[in-house]
């Protein structure tokens, strides 16, 4: 976790300086804007005032996460402020399989979108297919928060298997992904997997991920809770997704995630040792 304690003045001078900086850091990116948010959470009862220290610190925080998330392996959390009134805490998480440039473009778009969609809000979360950005006036780091959402994602009914069999395979796949994401030795809290649909020749592909500020046990609890959510909401469809502040799950009937191709190990060069048998000369001596 990266902590920054900075005092922002209440006048508008710093804000005037920061806004052009933020606009430079968060440029118009038409490719990223093509994707709509999966969900947005705004807390309308808690607002900050324009030109306040909190607003200045929020702009600093958004600038920081847009600059650092893709450089930090797809996850970054930090805070700005010097007291309870102006402190802001935030994080950004990119989907574990995306390239750094995709991660950065998504965080840029999300940082702009969260300000546009939740103006003056002291707490907000915005989630896209490839990333999530969240901030709050309260320190939420290391706290698993259950606020599950069901985006309108894939409404195609599945007619491949008996519903009970499809649900069973989906549940087993998502459970396995939850375990791997939470306890994988890499610490990235991200996992993908696939499962064959019996006798159809087709497969289910799944993905699970947690924000890396929570513990492995909390990651597992979050994902296991979402297994029940995704089976309950979406098992009659060909695909589905559930998203949360701390974790998310998704499945489809096609591979929607990037797979690292590990190059085959080079074959050893042929041995230069001759295979010709050795010649032996035998000497016989007669005793004197």
UniProtKB/TrEMBL annotation:
Domain of life per record: Eukaryota
Residue stretches making up the Gnk2-homologous domain: 36-140, 148-256
Alphabetical keyword list: Glycoprotein, Repeat, Signal
A Pfam family matched in the record: Stress-antifung
NADP keyword on record: no
InterPro entries: GNK2 (IPR002902), GNK2_sf (IPR038408)
Record PANTHER family: CYSTEINE-RICH REPEAT SECRETORY PROTEIN, CYSTEINE-RICH REPEAT SECRETORY PROTEIN 38-LIKE
Protein name per Swiss-Prot or TrEMBL: Gnk2-homologous domain
Lineage start: Eukaryota, Viridiplantae, Streptophyta, Embryophyta, Tracheophyta
């Amino acid at each position: 976790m990266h902590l920054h304690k900075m005092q922002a003045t209440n006048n508008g001078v710093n804000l005037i300086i920061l806004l052009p900086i933020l606009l430079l850091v968060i440029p118009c990116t038409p490719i990223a804007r093509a994707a709509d948010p999966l969900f947005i959470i705004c807390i309308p009862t808690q607002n900050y005032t324009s030109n306040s220290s909190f607003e200045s610190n929020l702009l600093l925080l958004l600038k920081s996460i847009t600059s650092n998330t893709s450089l930090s392996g797809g996850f970054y959390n930090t805070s700005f402020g010097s007291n309870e009134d102006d402190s802001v805490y935030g994080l950004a998480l990119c989907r574990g399989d995306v390239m750094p440039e995709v991660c950065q473009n998504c965080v840029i778009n999300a940082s702009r979108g969260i300000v546009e969609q939740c103006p003056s809000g002291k707490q907000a979360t915005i989630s896209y297919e490839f990333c999530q950005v969240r901030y709050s006036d309260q320190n939420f780091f290391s706290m698993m928060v259950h606020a599950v959402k069901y985006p309108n994602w894939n409404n195609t009914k599945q007619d491949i298997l008996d519903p009970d069999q499809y649900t069973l395979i989906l549940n087993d796949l998502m459970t396995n992904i939850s375990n791997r994401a939470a306890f994988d030795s890499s610490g990235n809290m991200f996992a993908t997997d696939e499962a064959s649909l019996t006798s159809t020749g087709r497969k289910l592909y799944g993905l699970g991920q947690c924000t890396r500020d929570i513990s492995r046990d909390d990651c597992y609890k979050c994902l296991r809770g979402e297994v029940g959510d995704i089976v309950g909401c979406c098992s009659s469809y060909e695909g589905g997704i559930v998203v949360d502040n701390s974790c998310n799950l998704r499945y489809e009937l096609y591979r929607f995630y990037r797979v690292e191709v590990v190059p085959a190990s080079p074959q050893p060069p042929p041995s230069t040792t001759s295979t010709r048998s050795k010649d032996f000369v035998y000497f016989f001596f007669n005793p004197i």
